[in-house]
Write a structure and sequence with these properties.
By secondary structure, the protein is of the alpha/beta class. It is built from 13 helices and 10 strands. Helix content is 48%, strand content 14%.
């Protein structure tokens, strides 16, 4: 099996750190290194990291004396990586049983694969000693360009970030996370990986459990959906201003991405309106009309057919809205 380096940037997540690291060490991968990069935490993070380092020779700790920001940790990890493959794992998340062996196995079988990822996350925290789930995981291997086209067609990132195992040579080739992007830096980097010659491998088997809590970096954009859309727009703008501009159909792809952003905002606005979330709905509709005035008069129905799960999500939102209306009539 291929070797892998797993970097775990950490800030104030001492309460989660041990579970995270142990989920990596228990993967059954022989050639494995783990680097904890602590960004000047003031909780018990360093104490936990030092204990883990003492307990297992595969674990190392780098301690920043001052907070350098998360991008410094991400990019330091890229410099550190030297094994066949590389994974950047957030300290508050946990790998599912067999996640690394699944990804490394498919990447070992097909040397053209630059990126192996899951498009879904686990809904419940994996239990220690759980049965291995390597057998039965289905991987779809496809040219990277298909993933890039999907990103532009849907204006969504279908890659669960902390599940993304990258071939280290490909990671070094595309370079660092861009410091100008605070919430969609990983999405922009995945676009750079997708435009490389080679393949990507995608599975619907969850590779990671993403812990949801109020201190998470993503909580700001989860609460403000129009802000989230604008962050995606910034990622597309950055990509097409740099590496993406060299694509032969760059202009057409960028126009598609812009149209998809407006359409996504419109239908997300409809979804939030059905749920009674008028603040988010208003911001989303405003963004959609700003970027595509026609959405004020004609719903962008074509987007529903470009996005594989849009109809499913729309049905759920409509059912939720009808239920709310029914309850309002009963209580009124």
């Amino acid at each position: 099996m291929a070797s892998i380096d797993v970097a775990i940037p950490n800030f104030q997540y001492g309460r989660y750190l041990r579970n995270c690291v142990q989920s990596v060490l228990s993967q059954g991968v022989e050639d494995l290194r783990v680097l904890i990069i602590d960004n000047a935490s003031t909780d018990n993070s360093v104490e936990v990291a030092e204990q883990l380092e003492a307990e297992d020779g595969r674990v190392s700790l780098v301690r920043h004396r001052r907070n350098l920001g998360h991008h410094a940790s991400f990019n330091e990890a890229i410099d550190w990586a030297q094994s066949d493959c590389f994974l950047l794992l957030c300290a508050d998340d946990v790998l599912t049983t067999g996640a690394l062996s699944r990804a490394l196995s498919v990447m070992e079988q097909d040397k053209t694969i630059n990126l192996a990822f899951a498009n879904r996350a686990a809904l419940t925290l994996p239990q220690p000693g759980a049965r291995r789930t390597d057998v039965g995981a289905k991987w779809d291997v496809m040219p990277g360009r298909i993933l890039l086209d999907r990103f532009c067609r849907t204006a969504l990132c279908s890659v669960v970030g902390c599940s993304a195992v990258v071939r280290t040579a490909a990671q070094k080739r595309v370079g660092y996370y861009r410091t100008s992007l605070d919430h969609t830096d990983d999405f922009e980097l995945f676009m750079r990986l997708a435009m490389l010659d080679g393949s990507i491998a995608e599975t619907g088997t969850p590779q990671v459990f993403l812990r949801s809590h109020d201190e998470a970096r993503s909580v700001v954009v989860r609460r403000n959906r129009s802000l989230q859309i604008r962050k995606y727009e910034a990622a597309f703008t950055s990509f097409f201003a740099h590496e993406g501009r060299h694509l032969p159909d760059a202009d057409a792809l960028q126009r598609l991405a812009r149209r998809s952003l407006a359409s996504r905002a419109y239908w997300s606005g409809v979804s939030h309106l059905c749920r009674g979330d008028f603040a988010n709905a208003s911001g989303l509709f405003r963004y959609a009309v700003e970027r595509s005035r026609s959405t004020a008069f004609v719903p962008p129905v074509d987007y529903l057919f470009r996005h594989e799960r849009a109809l499913e999500r729309a049905a759920v939102a409509l059912a939720d809205g009808l239920q709310r209306l029914h309850l309002a009539k009963r209580t009124g």
